[in-house]
Design brief:
Length: 264
């Protein structure tokens, strides 16, 4: 047991030294947005809320459609405002660590997607309150706002991963699993298109488009989870609990992202 602990400490010291060549360790703690287990939970709730809103369903009771309520507009507006302010504060705090800065930009884009989707659906409901079911899936187009931030954040995250992966087997395994899942989806799509082209009787362009969409969706969804666990491992805080001096900031942001769940 002591040998395993010593081995772990040696590896931990190695990856800390590897990062410290570019980033002072104390700079890593500038990042006060959710990550780790709490970040994972936050993203699961965010994805669930967004999908419910796309289909015009109440997140707290998805068996019912959203009804006319100006309260939903207020929820979306307050949620967006708080998340923007707190994400910008995090960016300012992490200005000397570009990797964490762009990851904060990524999380800001997720918050914007969540909040703007809530606002869009609320406006659709207000303007169409006589309809039983609102065709709010039009709000799904706001995901295009999220993709640039996600790409920027992944660039920053992968820069950190490359620096420490060889010292941390957990991150190395997590990275392999992430890219294997996304890569497998892409390979299946390409093989399906080739088979249809060879045997005929189908529409290869539709198969290719569907395969690309599924692969992109997998990357979008899983990349957020991947970032949560990577940061939790790097910061040696797998649960992602905030420090005492940043807990108020942390939980205010966490709750602000949940406001659209109360769309009714």
């Amino acid at each position: 047991m002591d040998a395993l602990l010593a081995f772990h400490n040696i590896h931990r010291r190695n990856w800390i030294d590897a990062l410290a060549q570019d980033i002072p360790i104390h700079e890593l703690h500038c990042y006060n947005l959710p990550y780790g287990g709490l970040g994972f939970t936050s993203h699961v709730l965010t994805y669930y809320t967004i999908v419910c809103l796309w289909y015009g369903r109440k997140p707290l009771w998805p068996f019912k459609t959203i009804t006319y309520s100006k309260f939903d507009l207020a929820l979306g507006a307050v949620g967006i405002a708080l998340c923007i302010i707190m994400s910008i504060i995090t960016m300012i705090n992490c200005k000397n660590t570009w990797q964490l800065l762009v990851i904060a930009v990524w999380k800001l884009s997720m918050s914007l997607l969540n909040g703007i989707t809530g606002l869009h659906v609320a406006i659709l409901v207000v303007n169409n309150r006589d309809q039983e079911i609102v065709k709010s899936k039009n709000a799904a187009w706001w995901i295009l706002l999220y993709i640039p931030g996600m790409i920027a954040g992944m660039v920053g995250l992968m820069d950190l991963v490359v620096k420490v992966a060889r010292y941390i087997p957990e991150i190395q395994n997590l990275t392999i699993a992430f890219y294997l899942i996304v890569g497998a989806s892409l390979i299946v799509s390409i093989l399906s298109m080739i088979i249809i082209c060879y045997w005929g009787g189908g529409a290869p362009e539709k198969v290719a488009a569907t395969g690309f969409a599924v692969t992109l969706a997998l990357f979008i969804v899983l990349s957020a989870f991947y970032s949560d666990w990577c940061l939790g491992i790097m910061l040696d805080n797998l649960l992602g609990t905030p420090s005492s001096d940043s807990s108020a900031f942390y939980w205010t942001y966490f709750i602000a992202k949940r406001l659209t769940m109360f769309s009714w």
